[in-house]
Input
Amino acid sequence: MKKILSAAAAAAIFFSMLPCMAAETESDVTVYDMTGKDPVLTVDAEDGDYKINVVTGGDTETNANVYINGGERVRAYTLEAGEEQDNEQYAVPKEGKITVEVKGDSPNVKEIKIEKLPEREEREHPVIYIAGDSTAQTYNYTTAYPQTGWGQVIGDYFTDDITVENRAMGGRSSKSFDNDGRLDKILAEICPGDYLLIQFGINDGAVDKPERYISVEDYKALITDKYIGEAVKRGAVPILLTPTAASWWDEENNRFMESRQDYAVPTKEIAEETGVTLIDVNKIAEEDYNNDLTKDEVFSMYFICEPLESAAYPEGTDDHTHLKEKGARAQAKYIVNELGKIDGLSGYIVTDRSEMFTDISGHWAETLIRAYTPTMNLNGVSKTSFAPDEAVSRADFLKMAMEYAGLSGHAYREGECLDASEDDWYRFYLQGALDKGVIPAEMIENCAGISEGSKTVKEASEDSEAVTAEITVYMAEDGRTMSFDADKDITREEAAVLLYNALSVSGRIEAADQDVKYTDRDEISDTALEAVITLTASGVFEGYGDGTFRPGAELTRAEAVKLVSSAADR
Output
């Protein structure tokens, strides 16, 4: 998954893109002294991109917010007397003019600087910009897990030469995204040969939210004239996407239903009228989901959460619009598959991440690794190395077992996730496994035992009852710190226990009533014996040719793939 950038890092990337700026071109800067003047400035402006700095502050308290071309760019803020604030924004002329207005009880506008930016040249490799809503947005998992936008993961399906600038933002319609200045910021950066993916339509019809609502007629005009028109003026390639499908299920016919057609249809009309490439992700999803997925499999892609799963909504969610990582990756692949048909992008596409692994060719597990990398969301030790013969860690195998058992991770709770920290990638899988009792006490250092318990995730109120969740409680020895030791290489019997417990919790396996003879049976711990016997009897686990199981031997990454894929295929 691509790293989420801070504002400072994003700014650094913007300036690192300067090689695409036209050389030998001076900026055209005009400074307007606004002290004591009407805080509204309208200037004539030719086509192009403009950077605008609005400086406010004075001897008295400042109360202001900044509008550009009618859109609110800087929400109301207050400065103490003597303080100053420089608000930097970007703008595209509207009907040949730029209007800057500072509203408020005491706006104290000191200066407005308008700078026409130079035109830009084509880059060595194109950048893909995304303009869209919450279904595409990049989320911070610390506060939003497991909600994921397709724009957050789509970069994983391109080579390292491609940069994805995901500017999608939750709650935005085509209208509010533009009024916020988000489109103008993209237009100020985009270069000839870059791509602009445009996906709206979920929030555009919100008649009860005037800041978002835009009629179909105005939607078509805005997308055509500004999103597409201005991108084309800059030599970029606009691409239209229909809205991400909602998880609507036709119970009568037991099939996934088409959705979001109120703005999907006009989006298709725009594509037909302008000749712009259309990716009908709504239709692709409908066809794919109805191909061989069950209702439960489809719903598992959406932001439908059990208690404790969501960081933002610990009581659980029933959200049929937004996505989890599994759904976001499905949407991203639909989009990437279509982008691969475009000549300028086809050479950058990596729809199967296993294609990047340079160390699995000819390996006995090559077919398995290639087959299960997308399904299991497998990662290598690097983007180009899977390291099939290296030992697999406890954390890596826990993720694989949870994924294939269909068990959700849980939002990380500090102090309740053993030795994991909020920076550990596996924390969600570990927290979910602990809550569900997947991990035996014997695999946790300083654990005295396990008991059943419950956790209140939402207190009762006048309007609702308390929400509680049944969890497994791990008890520490004499107040010692318990540890999962996630980076430790997992043994064969530990892997058997984790996989068996995960499958048991999900109701996918029951203890075998037959015995399995291994010559080293006495070396298998009592904790692991039932798991080893059941998984062997089920054809999931195999012993060695000499009749041994070798419970303490390390499991390799290739063997882990074989083990979990065997469980999936049973």
User: Anything to note?
Assistant: The chain has a mean pLDDT of 91.
